[in-house]
Amino acid sequence: MVNFTPKGDTARIFMQFFPDVPADLSDVAPHGLALGIGSFRTGQIDVFTTYSTEWQSLYHERKWLNRDPAVIIGLRGPGVHHWTAETIQDPEFKDACFGYGLKSGTSITDTIAGSSCLVGLTTNDTPSDAAIEAATRAVREAHMGYLTSKAQLLHPQHIDVVYLAAKGYRAKEISAKLEISEETVKQRKASIQSRIGVNNFTTAVNICAIAGLTLHPIK
Q1: How far is 56 from 219, CA to CA, in rounded Å?
Q2: Is there a contact between 213 and 127 (Cβ–Cβ < 8 Å)?
Q3: N or C: which end of the chain has fewer CB within 10 A?
Q4: Each residue of 69-90: pLDDT tens digit?
Q5: pLDDT (average), residues 103-113
Q6: Backbone angles phi, psi at 33, to 5 degrees
């Protein structure tokens, strides 16, 4: 997990090696990529990377996350943004980037109801339109795949609420069906959103539907 503070220098980074980076991303990032998913506003982010352990150790030790142009530009909003290490103000970080061949690249950001997927791709040249389109599609798929994997970890009591909500039941009806209070229904809805990582319950139900959870029968 990453604790990300956009205006501070206290960010701590714990990178994991992503075991199955989509080919459309790795193909356009010969010098490496980093993929962060979660809420950059709260700092609850899971990060996966193909960069070397040596680079990541240095990056973590020097707390460069908040100075990284791939992150700064990527957080401007959803879409595709190009960056260059020339814009880095910290001379030590800039020299390290050039020393490791990390001179320029592209950030792709996808957002879903408060959850962001930001991918920084390091390249020598600007990728072709076709490569960017394929990479953007891969980012969206990776983002949704991540959210559906979170949905699959929901407790049975949460899945019961999702199942009924997907069938059109309102909170009062869910309360009666499950024999719980409306306040408990409200709390479970909030918990579902939090566990998946989105800020909208309708979106959470849609993600659960993609994960196959709305077929769950009430026992």
Answers
A1: 48
A2: no
A3: C
A4: 999 999 888 999 999 999 999 9
A5: 94
A6: -150, 160
